[in-house]
UniProtKB/TrEMBL annotation:
<keyword id="KW-0221">Differentiation</keyword>
<dbReference type="InterPro" id="IPR038596">
    <property type="entry name" value="Janus_sf"/>
</dbReference>
<keyword id="KW-0726">Sexual differentiation</keyword>
<dbReference type="Pfam" id="PF05005">
    <property type="entry name" value="Ocnus"/>
</dbReference>
<dbReference type="InterPro" id="IPR007702">
    <property type="entry name" value="Janus"/>
</dbReference>
<comment type="function">
    <text>JanA and janB regulate somatic sex differentiation.</text>
</comment>
<comment type="similarity">
    <text>Belongs to the janus family.</text>
</comment>
<protein>
    <submittedName>
        <fullName>14 kDa phosphohistidine phosphatase-like isoform X1</fullName>
    </submittedName>
</protein>
Length: 152
């Protein structure tokens, strides 16, 4: 999936079926993706627990393509820790940069196959939890994944 923003137009390029809560114009679809963006996983979260998460845009400066990703780690005391860790992960690709789309919390319980997305980041604002859930469903299709804007 590639998210592209140019001249105040929000475009979402999807290379496989993805359920979104907004209509998508079919002319936005593309099967091509930046070589480097295709190597970045859409979802990287810890396997269990309650932790801070961020919804991030990975931007390929060479192609001007974007890819939204979800990152969340128990080791992150702050949302900025998640942001900095992701920047470190993608810095091996010189044309990629990380941009914040906000944050929140994830409650991940693999024993009952459940993920709950909620809350906000005081420093980065609230992420679009519905988009985060759509991305999480690509990695955890057999999970019950829900979201709410309530809570911190």
């Amino acid at each position: 999936m590639i998210l592209k923003v140019s001249k105040c137009i929000f475009q979402l390029y999807v290379n496989r079926p993805l359920q979104l809560s907004v209509p998508i114009n079919s002319q936005w679809f593309s099967t091509k993706m930046s070589k480097y963006l295709s190597e970045v996983p859409e979802v990287d979260i810890d396997g269990k627990g309650v932790f801070k998460y961020m919804l991030l845009n990975i931007h390929d400066k060479a192609t001007d393509d974007y890819k939204p990703v979800v990152r969340g780690y128990l080791s992150a005391a702050w949302h900025d820790d998640v942001f900095e860790q992701t920047k470190e992960q993608v810095k091996k690709y010189s044309d990629l940069e990380v941009k914040s789309l906000g944050g929140g919390r994830i409650q991940h319980d693999p024993e009952i196959k459940s993920i709950r997305v909620y809350g906000y980041s005081q420093g980065y604002g609230q992420a679009d939890h519905s988009l985060a859930v759509d991305l999480l469903k690509t990695k955890y299709p057999d999970y019950d994944i829900t979201w709410t804007n309530d809570g911190y």
